[in-house]
């Protein structure tokens, strides 16, 4: 029995994740023992401190390329970049989560489990929110970081659950409109569990095929295995479904609008920016490392999914009347563009990473601005309420217009440069059909964005135009970061393009 | 010509981006701080341009320090704007002798005019905003001349266009100013479309817009015929269209006189000294492209000659002091176009005329502003007269500028205009006689209308009433003759016989000091520059030998001076006795045409606006019937499809799960089919 | 019975036998039993309690959920503890420390639950 060897662990490579996980654990202790009045300050500083320390560790590790803990974790250029992206976007979205001026006690309530509109629920609407959201966010971010550097499918599954479970819970914590918040949480949980089952089943089939769950093992197994190709094909399909669910690709996107709309807007922002980065990090890694050699088999299928996602996402965005649902469908369509990058394999890894950063910042800025438009009921997200906001709040409307133009891909915004980079590298990878569909669908997608712009500036204000609240420095910083990065990446994208080019391909040894 | 290379800049020059950054920063600060900067904002504006000027001089000295054989074209790569696949747009700056003289002109004259504007705008509540726009203009203009590729040239080009638009319509409560701003903006668009198309053509042909790469491509194609002559001609003509728009050349000259609605410092800096010469800069910079195609050069020369005559003829018929100067600007830029179109050694002549013109025309405009400042913003020269007694500094400096522009030796216009006329005569073939005569005729006409302007303004009997003399009738007379609104909305009182009641006075020192400095420039610049600048520019334009000659230098000089003196004499004799206060009936078609700007507006209406309007009408029709049909149909299709698809989004988890399951089924089936099939 | 699924032949036989057993047993039951239905017999059986009245969308007490959750936590812990207990002897102190960290992280959750007062049944 003594032939079991402990796998070697490179703690340096794991350090960023250990820091964030550690900070999350400390956060739980803070919840348990710190006096109530102090918790908010301690939690915010702990969370930001943990994330910044993690970021520093990533920067220190920047040239690392190593597989450790028996192949469970593969730290490489794209992985580190994705981790860094998730942490940075996480820090920014934390500004929204910690905002306490817009809403007395913050955007969250303490207990998700109170039945909506029950007495207890109404009482907690008036109380300051719980600070558990901070450790939950940290766990989610740490899980996403692990997801992007998983070296085998089981680690990937564990990471998937680690980042999903806190998100399910966070979705149910909205202070206002409790019922749809709880509905969102439940839907996300049920469908997420459903998708996880697909993922796990795919892992089992692939294990049956290759005799291993490690990504590189599967890559070699494709060349050597004597097992039936059915196992590989079915396993690949089921695994992909689990991942495509998180990435919100059609037809696995159905949860997206409901959950984006119901979840507290800061959490929606976190999901749109960080979860998207993590999900595509995982997709890129799985398809580039494990299945690159079988690309001929799955590329047509994934290309079809990409086309469906772009087309359905952009067409459905046209008819939306709620800004959060509109952004949700735009997130679906953007998932389609990113899938173009996945299908293009190694040629488009760099531009996909660039796209994730560019889109993440824009979408964070947009959701941050959504939190500002409020009336007595909380956020006024119905588009008809936004009519004529340009008259009373020109600065707000100008910034939002800029972000919308960014989403629409107008030059001098990151929306243009990122789409341009992604589509041109896909074109070079001979995915011309996808590029054409992508460009056409982004034309369709420009329509709903411009509709919002027209609504803001040209329509007369309604009878009860909501006010644009003045937020604290935190939300202002988020909006500034979103707008500034959208602009800077639109004007001078080269430095980031250089970084993603230096990140190189995924480590496939 | 050998291939063109730019050496990387070293030392102080590597920080040449500061030239653009300082005024841009100042403009940003002034705009962002808002009213908080009202008290000291104008001094920040002046200081930032002074700083740029000092830097410009430093860089100039460094460039001069490079010995004869060294590469005098120094470039700095700032950053890559975008580099994806074959598309590569980088942001880089270039400092060569041509850029250097422009930088000195822009910052030097710009500084003086900024200083002047402190006084001129002292009573205007929007002075801070004015200086913000003014700084923005300087930054954009410096970007225009410092860029090392056409995209940056275009960026600066649009930047100065924006600043010009903002400043022309600065007094936007006056309808004329708002309209003039719009007109300038729209007419410039016509030119800009040409420029943009030229840039696209460069991208398509050479894959880059870097000066060095484009020019080397053109040079290589001359040797190997890789690029067809048609493409080069198209490129040249499109660039020329852009230049005509910006520089007020035929047929796009009409916006420039209207632009005088802006504050006078704006007219001096933007619409006389710097921005309107951007077209000359662009053609001089693109000399390789124009040299490669004789037809394009001929078009440039023809436009220059035609415009210089148009400007002179209309200048004779105008009564507004700034209008006359504006048409003289049009005409003088015509000379510059003529020069750069002639090619060869005449490039440098065009540039030195541009520099000299920058001095004396800025001085003339500021002088005109000083006159208006002392005359309650009246600008009708028929209502002046005898002012020399009341504003002697203005009279003296304006007089020097006047002598300079008509080319009396030894003032600067003589040294710079004379060689252009000579070069025009010496163009090969019969065209030399044609263009030379046009330039010579232009010199005579210039002398005539400038004399008219000068004599009517400063000499003869005053055609206005001094305040306090016969003022008893003034109050009642104001209504009888209709109030005349001045720049700031106040009315100038009139006497019974329709004369203005004035209190002429000299302007404060902050306005006269720039005037004096510019006058010194008008006197000295021509002689100083006529040889040294030509030598200085040799690295850019190359060495040129004298070609064949129709006429000798002496012959041309004598002819020029003769027609000039003739023009002056005629002007003096006709106008020494003053003129009527009201417009005389036009007896000839020429006068009528000249008063109507030679029907240029109507021409533009016919050539640009009417087809545009017809096209618009046709397009609207097509749009309503066809495109809207398609678009609305598409929108309806998408909207309808969207609505129908939306119904799938029921809100029930079971439906969602079913959707996921069916998707999963399809994907597994598809992959298995691929695998097994 | 060759090929990839060959080794599963025994399993297949077992499944067939199990199915047959199930069918035979129930068929025999149905054939042999007496049949006397009543209303009380067709109500749902709920561990000795009276069946819930009205809509079946009743809300359950959160405490049930918490206890189930804590149970799952420690069940998972023991799944890892048992195999570790068999081999930790040969792996040295490092593995003890690592398992200590693992248990500590789980204990953290318990600690939190205790501080929040969910362990008291009121």
Automatic annotation (TrEMBL), chain A:
<feature type="transmembrane region" description="Helical">
    <location>
        <begin position="267"/>
        <end position="287"/>
    </location>
</feature>
<comment type="similarity">
    <text>Belongs to the complex I subunit 2 family.</text>
</comment>
<keyword id="KW-0520">NAD</keyword>
<feature type="transmembrane region" description="Helical">
    <location>
        <begin position="394"/>
        <end position="413"/>
    </location>
</feature>
<feature type="transmembrane region" description="Helical">
    <location>
        <begin position="80"/>
        <end position="98"/>
    </location>
</feature>
<keyword id="KW-0812">Transmembrane</keyword>
<feature type="transmembrane region" description="Helical">
    <location>
        <begin position="230"/>
        <end position="255"/>
    </location>
</feature>
<dbReference type="GO" id="GO:0005886">
    <property type="term" value="C:plasma membrane"/>
</dbReference>
<protein>
    <recommendedName>
        <fullName>NADH-quinone oxidoreductase subunit N</fullName>
        <ecNumber>7.1.1.-</ecNumber>
    </recommendedName>
</protein>
<dbReference type="Pfam" id="PF00361">
    <property type="entry name" value="Proton_antipo_M"/>
</dbReference>
<feature type="transmembrane region" description="Helical">
    <location>
        <begin position="40"/>
        <end position="60"/>
    </location>
</feature>
<dbReference type="InterPro" id="IPR001750">
    <property type="entry name" value="ND/Mrp_TM"/>
</dbReference>
<keyword id="KW-1133">Transmembrane helix</keyword>
<comment type="subunit">
    <text>NDH-1 is composed of 14 different subunits. Subunits NuoA, H, J, K, L, M, N constitute the membrane sector of the complex.</text>
</comment>
<feature type="transmembrane region" description="Helical">
    <location>
        <begin position="299"/>
        <end position="319"/>
    </location>
</feature>
From TrEMBL, chain B:
<dbReference type="GO" id="GO:0016020">
    <property type="term" value="C:membrane"/>
</dbReference>
<keyword id="KW-0812">Transmembrane</keyword>
<dbReference type="GO" id="GO:0015990">
    <property type="term" value="P:electron transport coupled proton transport"/>
</dbReference>
<feature type="transmembrane region" description="Helical">
    <location>
        <begin position="556"/>
        <end position="575"/>
    </location>
</feature>
<feature type="transmembrane region" description="Helical">
    <location>
        <begin position="653"/>
        <end position="674"/>
    </location>
</feature>
<feature type="transmembrane region" description="Helical">
    <location>
        <begin position="40"/>
        <end position="61"/>
    </location>
</feature>
<dbReference type="GO" id="GO:0003954">
    <property type="term" value="F:NADH dehydrogenase activity"/>
</dbReference>
<feature type="domain" description="NADH:quinone oxidoreductase/Mrp antiporter transmembrane">
    <location>
        <begin position="149"/>
        <end position="438"/>
    </location>
</feature>
<feature type="transmembrane region" description="Helical">
    <location>
        <begin position="266"/>
        <end position="284"/>
    </location>
</feature>
<feature type="transmembrane region" description="Helical">
    <location>
        <begin position="351"/>
        <end position="372"/>
    </location>
</feature>
<dbReference type="GO" id="GO:0012505">
    <property type="term" value="C:endomembrane system"/>
</dbReference>
<feature type="transmembrane region" description="Helical">
    <location>
        <begin position="130"/>
        <end position="147"/>
    </location>
</feature>
<dbReference type="InterPro" id="IPR018393">
    <property type="entry name" value="NADHpl_OxRdtase_5_subgr"/>
</dbReference>
<feature type="transmembrane region" description="Helical">
    <location>
        <begin position="98"/>
        <end position="118"/>
    </location>
</feature>
<feature type="transmembrane region" description="Helical">
    <location>
        <begin position="509"/>
        <end position="529"/>
    </location>
</feature>
TrEMBL record, chain C:
<dbReference type="GO" id="GO:0008137">
    <property type="term" value="F:NADH dehydrogenase (ubiquinone) activity"/>
</dbReference>
<keyword id="KW-0813">Transport</keyword>
<keyword id="KW-1133">Transmembrane helix</keyword>
<keyword id="KW-0874">Quinone</keyword>
<keyword id="KW-0472">Membrane</keyword>
<comment type="function">
    <text>NDH-1 shuttles electrons from NADH, via FMN and iron-sulfur (Fe-S) centers, to quinones in the respiratory chain.</text>
</comment>
<dbReference type="GO" id="GO:0048038">
    <property type="term" value="F:quinone binding"/>
</dbReference>
<dbReference type="Pfam" id="PF00507">
    <property type="entry name" value="Oxidored_q4"/>
</dbReference>
<feature type="transmembrane region" description="Helical">
    <location>
        <begin position="91"/>
        <end position="114"/>
    </location>
</feature>
<protein>
    <recommendedName>
        <fullName>NADH-quinone oxidoreductase subunit</fullName>
        <ecNumber>7.1.1.-</ecNumber>
    </recommendedName>
</protein>
<dbReference type="GO" id="GO:0030964">
    <property type="term" value="C:NADH dehydrogenase complex"/>
</dbReference>
<dbReference type="GO" id="GO:0005886">
    <property type="term" value="C:plasma membrane"/>
</dbReference>
<comment type="similarity">
    <text>Belongs to the complex I subunit 3 family.</text>
</comment>
<keyword id="KW-0812">Transmembrane</keyword>
<dbReference type="InterPro" id="IPR000440">
    <property type="entry name" value="NADH_UbQ/plastoQ_OxRdtase_su3"/>
</dbReference>
